[in-house]
């Protein structure tokens, strides 16, 4: 039922953030085409450890496409050639015997390399810290059905909320912009009445943080949408921009740092 | 060791309220003087950190992933139960309580379960207010579905990604507190030991996974919300990094480990495809609503194209053995039946290590009856996921499924306050043993994690901290130095085995296979004894021959793995000891010696209506058993029957 593939990998190896890196060639022989891409890397790594060589470092955890830990550039494509698929869910049957595969970390000034294929995506957490939430105190919530939300709004909010924070949008973007990520959170909360009180403030804070993290601006290439494993639409970027422009006219206060929650 | 459950008395519906009133409070101005360490940022840890931070405590949250949003709660698909009775179909707190106690096969504490059912409704309110996009009806109000055999529709859901949305809600609440300065996060930090001073938990030792730095963190109390131990089986539906290190290190320092043999096996996972398999993927149980489970009647047909096997040669074994529930029998029963068919040599799919471990889940009849578009509407995303992984189209050829380890009901023993047997050390979520007894019902793991984090711990922790009088300690305290020393020593041993020859994964696979075979879906005294004879030897081979490349002073994923495997090698033995001790079948624990004539589980309430809380003695093969008797004042134990 399964086929065996003999492949040649060119993998980016880099000791740490300060060191320079480069591609190293590894043969990957007898790879079962039912393996996932990460299982193929596991097999290569087991072989390296047995030889006493350092295995290739890569981030991964759930291996079912939802935690957002994994993600590498495969032949120049974020998460590889299959649409709507994270690296862990990419299976080797998309490759052919004899293929050469180039594997690199996400490349963006805001994502420094930690080691080999592992990058630091802390900038995405800091964007959320700047305002990607509803400031509701635990225990103070009214009954969940006190507020009706049109099903179409809830469904569209869910489309945006599916973002797994993997960073593929940044890696795919020629400007290394995190606009798709940022707009997905802004869009999710803006579509719900629970997010309304902080809507204006949220878009200003999150966009400011996005820019402070050295992410580039969106110039509508659409690469992010094409790479997104959850198929988040760039319409959310348009919605974010509309909200942001609106605040330039309607904002009633200056953007001041928020203090505590008291 | 004395097990004091601290369960309040009085009418069950008043116990939590009364207890909360009796607990001492910490004045808002004093809260920031208390430092709280939380290990893990899943539903329990994330919710606890956010809430404690909001209350004003000085919280430090630790997680091994790069972001708190990646904890494995994120992978839960189905939903979260709550006794809202929005459907007017007769649900109530009492009914959710009743279903959970019964579903747990009468091996959980009634008071804890009642509290869980009681706060379930608050969870839905809280999450909705945070902006969790739960599924809604056209009225704009929240939708529910039925789940896991419950007779009411009480499950709230967000498509097939409920865990993700609930976790992102908790994560955002947590990041809000980071912004407010009350919570400090420590990503890519793994807890490798606990600091206990004068019998009280006072901190943890971590390894910075990027730099390799080992350091101590001191606090007034420590919360472990570090998840379950299902990865002891190597192959499970857990994330690759899920591990028992935090809970196991605490156990070694005096925290009792309760009911480790209670593990849940989920019947509908994608089968193992080859020896390179790194994890198993769960397919939602809802598939059993429209799929029919079968294997060929004759082992000789196992390799045939299933579509060419005539009806007369198929064995729809669930429909045959359980005519009333058919394909919808509970998880444990469906899992064991699949194993039995494969043990008989009638399993299907590719042979791995010479065995075919898979059964068909066939949608052909449903497609004929309802049409392909209806099936696509119900299960389209699951079919697509299956196709992506297995490379077969389930609209045309039957899916292949097999059970996999999914959840662990056992965990650190905790009292009603979620405090372990080490004062000042709390355990929440899957890391504790408290609410699910011997078997967990669908859509209740998320409920428990959030109940513990948002509502229980914030009250009970205050009760503890209000009476906290231990002196301040610093890094130079002998116990702190000793803990750091233990960690450093152990890491050194891991990187310098005398005869390095095997990778950490190869040991993990061997242990996993052994524990899966002898302490998985069904267990026998002989098999458990066999495992107990092998595990200590395997542990010795590990310390003698594990090969870890690189050093401890850098980013080193092989070293991380090795440390986790070392702890699984110890926990696996305790699981088998517990399973051997429990001479009965209850929930996820099925002892072949204890079954009825027609192969159903037989509980022994006379002798085993207790929580087995194991105490570390210094000898891993001889832990001490402490028993917490279970009494049932409200739900009288009865036999589960699904015939």
3D architecture notes:
- The complex is a heterodimer of chains A (about 260) and B (about 650).
- Chain A is α+β, with helices and mostly antiparallel strands and about 260 residues long.
- Chain A is built from 8 helices and 7 strands; from the N terminus they run ββαβββββααααααα.
- A 5-stranded mixed sheet of chain A has the order 2-1-5-3-4. A two-stranded antiparallel ribbon of chain A has the order 6-7.
- In chain A, a hairpin with an 8-residue loop joins β1 and β2 (about 20-30).
- In chain A, α2 packs antiparallel against α6 (about 200-210) and α3 (about 150-160) runs antiparallel to α5.
- The radius of gyration of chain A is 21 Å and the shape is elongated.
- Chain B has about 650 residues and is an alpha+beta fold.
- Among the domains of chain B are: about 265-405, Flavocytochrome C3, Chain A, domain 1 (Alpha-Beta Complex), CATH 3.90.700; about 485-605, Fumarate reductase/succinate dehydrogenase flavoprotein-like, C-terminal domain (Methane Monooxygenase Hydroxylase, Chain G, domain 1), CATH 1.20.58.100.
- Chain B contains 17 helices and 21 strands.
- Chain B has helices spanning about 15-20, 30, 45-55, 95-105, 110-130, 160-180, 245-250, 315-320, 330-345, 365-370, 370-390, 445-465, 480-495, 505-520, 525-545, 555-580, 605-610; strands at about 35-40, 60, 80, 155, 185, 190-195, 200-210, 215-220, 220-225, 255-260, 265-270, 290-295, 315, 350, 355, 360, 400-410, 410, 425, 610-615, 625-630.
- In chain B, the strands form 6 sheets. Chain B has a 5-stranded parallel sheet with strand order 5-2-1-9-19.
- In chain B, a hairpin with an 8-residue loop joins β20 (about 610-615) and β21.
- In chain B, α4 crosses α5 (about 110-130).
- The longest helix of chain B has 25 residues, at about 555-580.
- Chain B starts with 14 loop residues before the first helix and ends in a 14-residue tail after the last strand.
- The chains are: A alpha+beta (about 260), B alpha+beta (about 650).
- At the A-B interface, α1, α2 and α3 of A face α3, α5, α6, α11 and α12 of B.
